[in-house]
Design brief:
16 strands, Rossmann fold, 469 residues, binds GDP-alpha-D-glucose, ten-stranded mixed β-sheet, six-stranded parallel β-sheet, alpha/beta
Length: 469
């Protein structure tokens, strides 16, 4: 049986415990690696004075991880720069925030070459290679240039931007052309897949036939495969001792009020400001219901070295302060805004204690929090998921209360609808949601992709890119 080589920007070694910070993706990839054997390769998160390609191997819970350190300049240009200040905003439709700097593009390319150079000797002829996410778009091409003839797949965890937006990126054609080194590429939804087709056909003159896309004589297969969570594990987690404790603490501190919960990395794509404004609208429009609820927003900081992220942090603190200042009373504060992360089992308990899960990104590849909220609910008395129509998850979780997060009025209406929803309706909606979360879980997602990769015949006549000297 082939081995699986997973490559991603960061590597998350399995911890073997449910309380750690390992997310759903890490759990899925670890499970795949155990099944296929193999290696998970990526950046260690550490820096070194001069890049030396030294690989640090570790083995934990049957998964081998292999990590390298990068130079300070690599991190600035590749990670903080091109990945987080160019591609992330652009791919989330925020060209107003995207920074186009040749230095970033150069650093991104250099790190992809360094990854290819370092991981290449670890790849054996029968291995299948699966590359993750926007940090590593050109890595497949760099591996091909180093003679790698294996099956190579790529999965994009974030949206693919509409054609007109992507064409603002100076390196767009070059970057998209490199994708044709892959045998299979995957997106969460049909919408992102269609945007990819649009760019290849309308901007680059390629062609699409079914799920096969051809450009400049090279063909790849492009599929939509929505990621899921480990629903079974998460539902069990919500019954764990720490989850029960967190549940009790939240219910006690709510003193009979309904809790609305939001859990998001502090990121502008998550629509936190718009969420606070929608909630404020609810407080304003419904003085009678006002003190029956409170919003708990958990927002662990991320990418703190990027200026835009420092700004949203300051902006949100100001907004939460203003809303609390305007509406709080002696015995009630409308927003509890928490700027730190919690272990997964604590989160599961918090989700279960919340009458409403408010998941309102402005744009999101999928959104796993929505699925975790569903999986953590009490089947006898489940809460209501309010979900943005712009999250990839909205295509699967149709029984949620779907909202347009740009409209404060719609958000306010949705909160009222959720609060007034009968228990029978909550149960009926939750059953349908849970059915989807369980059926299309993370194992299903991983299988969809690896099956496509294994079953796609390799393009025999694929012209190779120029080899490296
Ligand atoms: C990208 C795409 C796509 C959050 N706070 C804490 C914590 N989290 C965990 C959640 C969830 C994960 O982080 C966030 O996942 P999302 O899917 O919501 O968002 P991104 O991080 O932006 O992920 C996204 C995903 O990739 C997978 O393809 O769905 O669209 O943007 O698991 O629970 N975890 C812990 N403490 C926290 O305080 N332990």
């Amino acid at each position: 049986m082939s081995r699986l080589i997973v490559i991603s920007n960061r590597v998350s070694a399995p911890t073997g415990s449910h309380s750690g910070a390992q997310g759903g993706l890490a759990v899925a990839l670890s499970a795949a690696l155990r099944e296929y054997r193999g290696i998970w390769f990526g950046w260690s998160g550490e820096t070194t004075e001069q890049f030396n390609g030294h690989i640090n191997f570790q083995r934990a819970h049957d998964v081998t991880t292999a990590t390298v350190d990068l130079e300070e300049q690599d991190v600035e240009e590749y990670y903080d720069g091109y990945a987080n200040r160019t591609l992330w905003p652009l791919f989330h439709y925020r060209i107003d925030l995207a920074e186009y700097e040749r230095g970033f593009a150069g650093g991104y390319q250099r790190v992809n070459e360094r990854f290819a150079e370092t991981v290449r000797p670890l790849i054996e002829p029968d291995d299948i290679v699966w590359i993750q996410d926007y940090h590593l778009l050109p890595l497949g091409e760099e591996l091909r240039r180093r003679g790698c003839e294996n099956r190579i797949g790529f999965f994009l965890h974030i949206p693919w931007p509409p054609q007109r937006l992507l064409s603002t990126l100076p390196e767009a054609e070059e970057l998209v052309t490199t994708l044709f080194a892959y045998d299979v590429i995957g997106f969460h939804t049909q919408e992102w897949l269609q945007s990819f087709f649009d760019f290849v056909t309308n901007e680059l003159g390629g062609s699409v036939e079914g799920d096969l896309v051809t450009l400049k004589g090279r063909t790849l297969r492009a599929i939509a495969a929505p990621i899921g969570i480990d629903a079974k594990e998460f539902a069990e987690l919500s019954q764990s001792t720490r989850a029960r404790l967190a549940f009790r603490q939240m219910r006690d501190s709510a003193v009979g009020r309904d809790m609305i919960v939001g859990v998001d990395r502090l990121d502008y794509s998550k629509g936190l400001e718009e969420r606070f404004l929608g909630y404020e609208r609810f407080l304003k429009e419904h003085p009678g219901e006002r003190k029956e609820v409170f919003l708990l927003q958990i927002a662990p900081p991320s990418r703190g070295s990027v200026e835009t992220y420092q700004k949203i942090r300051t902006g949100l603190e100001g907004l939460a302060g203003r809303i609390n200042g305007a509406y709080a009373d002696l015995d009630w504060v409308p927003i509890r805004y928490v700027n730190q992360g919690y272990p997964r089992d604590v989160l599961a308990g918090v989700y279960r204690a919340a009458r409403i899960g408010l998941v309102t990104p402005l744009r999101d590849g999928m959104n796993l929090v929505a699925k975790e909220y569903v999986a953590a609910q009490d089947p006898e008395d489940p809460g209501v998921l309010i979900l943005s129509r712009f999250a990839g998850a909205a295509l699967q979780l149709k029984e949620a209360v779907i909202v347009n997060p740009y409209s404060a009025e719609e958000m306010s209406d949705a909160i009222l609808t959720a609060l007034r929803m009968s228990r029978d309706e909550r149960i009926a909606r939750w059953r349908a949601l849970m059915d989807n979360v369980q059926r299309e879980d993370v194992i299903w997602w991983r299988q969809c992709f690896t099956d496509a990769l294994i079953n796609t015949p390799q393009a025999a006549a694929m012209p190779s890119p120029d080899p490296v000297d």
